[in-house]
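Hi support team,

I submitted a single chain yesterday and got back a structure, but I'm not sure I'm reading the token output correctly. Could someone confirm the output below corresponds to the sequence I sent? I've pasted both exactly as they appear in my results page.

Thanks,
R.
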Amino acid sequence: MSLLRRFQKSRQPYQPLLHIHLPGLTSYAQALEIQGEYVRKYRDFQTLDIVEFRKNNAQNPTATLLTFQTFPTYLCHRSQLSRLSQHQIAYLRNNGKSSFQEGRRLGQITFHGPGQLVAFLITTVKPHVEPALDHLSLMESAVILTCSAYGIKGFISLHPGVWAGPNNRIATLGKQAGKHVASYHTALNVTTNLDWIRRISDCGFREHSATSFEREGVTGASVDEVASVFAQKISALMASFHR
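Hi R., thanks for writing in. Yes, this is the structure output for that exact sequence:
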């Protein structure tokens, strides 16, 4: 079954996806600042009244894909902070080799770091216009297609994320939704040092076993290259949805 069978066609004209890739290593805080700029841009667009909209011949802002890799960073949602002792936080910080921050994603603890492609898809959401468009499923499909481009059979299961084996998750996914604006994100392990992720389990938090392109036998792939492939895949999916 085609991945696009999961989505109902949209009546809205397609605007090309804007892909912004940050080369090298970027601090997670800086990436969030850039994400926030685009979220604010889309929220400002929503404040246009119908007269101003028609006068300026305004169009919905182009969906933006922000891709990057970051320094070793652990994120913990504020609801879970009370479960962590100072000793556990110190263990995750690993003598200053990684940072520990409060994250926005619901759940326990997540890791982002070198060798991992992090992608944010920022877009406006109008349920009365596109009720069936599930951007999170679209992100899942793009990850699966990207894995396939490198000979990895990725799939989804009852557990969140994209998997490359019964117990090996290769990518995590999530979303933040606000009023008419949403940001969807994925973290795809390319050459990630998986020991960073294992440290989450060492702190007593349940964490599925992780895998990466490298562990699955893919050699020579860089995060920059995989980011380009991922952008092509998700752009093609979005274009097909609007045909």
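A quick pointer for reading it: The chain has a mean pLDDT of 82. Let us know if anything else looks off.

Best,
Support desk
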